[in-house]
Amino acid sequence: QKEVEQNSGPLSVPEGAIASLNCTYSDRGSQSFFWYRQYSGKSPELIMSIYSNGDKEDGRFTAQLNKASQYVSLLIRDSQPSDSATYLCAGRVTGGGNKLTFGTGTQLKVEL
Amino acid sequence: KAGVTQTPRYLIKTRGQQVTLSCSPISGHRSVSWYQQTPGQGLQFLFEYFSETQRNKGNFPGRFSGRQFSNSRSEMNVSTLELGDSALYLCASSLEASGWDYEQYFGPGTRLTVT
Question: Which positions in chain B have a beta carbon within 8 angstroms of at least one beta carbon in chain A?
Answer without folding.
Answer: 31, 33, 35, 42-45, 48, 50, 55-56, 58, 88, 90, 92, 94, 97-98, 100-109
